[in-house]
């Protein structure tokens, strides 16, 4: 068989093995086989003539680059790619996150909204714990005193996410 036909067959085998390396996890085995096929194709090209050898030598990196880029574009749509690549959050997750952001307020508004509120401790405050304020559970800190669960409290200071309370006597 003509060496030029072998060169083209080996070149095509190298392209196929490079594409398979992207789509099939083989720990580099297919990439090494692809490299070997390209080297053999270039060697067979040089057997025909120096012009064919140089042409194949210059074409191989360009073709491999195109195959790799296109392979990574196709990969997420294949069954192997869907199992290997994490999915972006779905619309439900994004809408939940957006709803949470919409419901959240500016911290200065939260500061003024909680300040002076009265509620009941849900857990013991030693000095931190949780309390129900305006129908919502908040993490709170006492002024240093122990406050038992179920005690009446009042918010005396809010700084960021730190809500300081005191027991109502």
Q: What's the short version?
A:
With 169 residues, the protein is of the alpha+beta class.
How would you characterize the overall build of this protein?
- The protein has helices at residues 3-23, 29-48, 50-74, 79-84, 91-103, 107-114, and strands at residues 118-121, 128-133, 136-142, 152-159, 162-167.
- The chain folds into 2 domains: 3-84; 103-167, Nucleic acid-binding proteins (OB fold (Dihydrolipoamide Acetyltransferase, E2P), Beta Barrel).
- The termini are far apart.
- Strands 1-2-3-5-4 form a 5-stranded mixed beta barrel.
- The model has no long low-confidence stretch (mean pLDDT 84).
- It is an alpha+beta fold and 169 residues long.
- Helix 1 (3-23) runs antiparallel to helix 2 and helix 1 (3-23) runs parallel beside helix 3 (50-74).
- It contains 6 helices and 5 strands, in the order ααααααβββββ.
Key structural traits:
single chain; 169 residues; alpha+beta; OB fold (Dihydrolipoamide Acetyltransferase, E2P); five-stranded mixed beta barrel; 6 helices; 5 strands; 18% strand; rod-shaped
Largest sheet: 5 strands, mixed, barrel
How would the global form be characterised?
Answer: rod-shaped
N-to-C CA distance: 102 Å
The percent range for helix content is 55-70%
Cα gyration radius (Å): 34 Å
Order of helices and strands: HHHHHHEEEEE
Instruction: Pick out the low-confidence regions.
Output: none
The assembly state of the depicted protein chains is single chain
Structural class: alpha+beta
Query: How many E-type strands?
Result: 5
Overall mean pLDDT score?
84
- Quickly count the helices: 6
What fraction strand?
15-25%
In the sheet with the most strands, the strands line up as 1-2-3-5-4
Number of domains: 2
